[in-house]
Amino acid sequence: MDDELIIGNRRFNSRFILGSGKFSLEMTKAVMENGGVEIATLAVRRANAGGEENILDYIPKGLTLLPNTSGARNSDEAVRIAMLARELGCGDMIKIEIIKDSRYLLPDNCETIKATKILADEGFIVMPYMMPDLSAARSMADAGASAIMPLGAPIGSNKGLLTKDFIKIMVDELDLPIIVDAGIGRPSQACEAMEMGCAAVMANTAIATAGNIPMMAKAFKLSIEAGRMAFLSKPGRVLQNGGEASSPLTGFLEDVR
Amino acid sequence: MIREFTDADDYHSHMESIDSDIMKNTLSKVSELGSRTFTEADVRYALNKERLGPEDFAALLSVAAEAFLEDMAQRTREETRKYFGNSVSIFTPLYTSNYCENGCLYCGFSRDNKIHRAKLSFDGIESEMSKIAESGLNEILILTGESRKASDVEFIGECVKMAADHFNNVGVEVYPLNTEEYGYLHECGADYVTVFQETYDPDRYAELHPFGPKRIFSYRFNAQERALKGGMRGVAFGALLGLGDFRKDSLACGIHAYLVQRKYPHAEISFSLPRLRPFINGGYSAEAVSERQLLQVALAYRIFMPFSGQTISSRESSKFRDNIVGLSATKISAGVRVGIGGHAEEKKGDEQFDISDPRDVEEIRKALMEKGLQPVFNDYVRV
User: Chain A residue with minimal CA distance to B88?
Assistant: First the structure.
């Protein structure tokens, strides 16, 4: 079945986006292989080392890098980090991450909209990380975003889809791929996100904090595939409180149907 | 008591006074919580909470919490991994001068202590920095003794500019400055500022600092705020454990950082956990803080502010450091020289204190890898 994930002009077979930076670099390859990962995010601030333990040295060939602007507190800083990513040869995809709250690490939608516009105009494939707010997501889409990345729960919290209803609204209303970014803690939650129509799922902490990291990567791969398949197979309506008469309120009509 | 240190008349002419109630609020909270007796039930309650407030933090620092050290450690490791994964940053300090105008009774650099004094020349600094950069390090902390005369702001600024050529991440640990001066150092290339309050007990502070600009408690206390107003990205806090009641000092230090973060939500916060160490000619007897107690403080900081950085000093033994990184600490120094110079050439001046863990960058890196931790040489991009 041809079911590609399309972001901007790029096409992918995997819908599992892996975050990096929370587990040992030497494990990177095994995690990506087990997870069938084609896209991995990368903090530009980590990549810009040049010296020892450069994360870029550990990324398998053929993988698409999704550099992020973590560390940026406003649109200006995000734009500069994105330009630096381009100079470093990280490609033209960029995940905008603008955070000015060191306690909860929640994104700033206003600044993110501004950065989306500037970077889309600069020719980047822009994927903004955001608080799930339909209006802000529409502004990001208008500004040229190629995908929208709402958070399921705060970064690193492993709390799952706390914002589920709002993400679902975005899935229903926007034509862009909706990718759940932060908060996914279990494969079952990733599966749920996919089943409700999200285009992909990103995970990092959930995998990095697992007892067996490569095996957890595989569990995510399978759950994301299962969720996607369920979505494509159009799940049947769930009947509540047992059975339901076929037309309890309109059965009085005597017209011939 | 507090008034003596907040009275603007005490300020030296160069010292800026800012409008802030963080010191007042910290000290009053500490006096309220520091005198309370916490029970095991309070500790359990705190440990079961998702987000802790100052009262819960005080419970974790209490004597009652000593019985819960393993539980605290379990929770701590979970929090650290959530926020930092298995990453541990490595950096080194560079002491550029040991001239000092203060009379701190517990410090080797103290003005009247008869030690060999020195200040590195710019050539000397350049060769020290080149040597440090060769080890692969990308983060440096520039220190001076507290003397505006011997190491003026322009001198520190030049050091920062030179450091910015070699390293991505430049921090300073120098005498407290005014907002504008922090702004200048930020322009030169520094983004992080460390200031230890030493002890948060104003009376004890007065005893330990008989003369010098450091005597002004509140000017030091407000340094982090001025640094952030000056544009710095992150500020580090620390109480020198052993000078006073370590529980109250740690409580105050945590609440200080907590209130600063609430007022400046973007600020990157980190804690240091220095314990008093012997120094040349040092006859000062300190109240002992055991490793167990030091660990309790480290765990309490992490659980209270799980997102904060935590640096473990080379004052501690290699065994203790190897065990606390990955648990609560997220940053470790390597190849440390606390005398003046000593990386590229022979040291020019005497040490501030004795270190316990002399391992170089490669040794620290190996030790981290053996524990399954990921050494991080760079986690910062200046834009």
Answer: A22
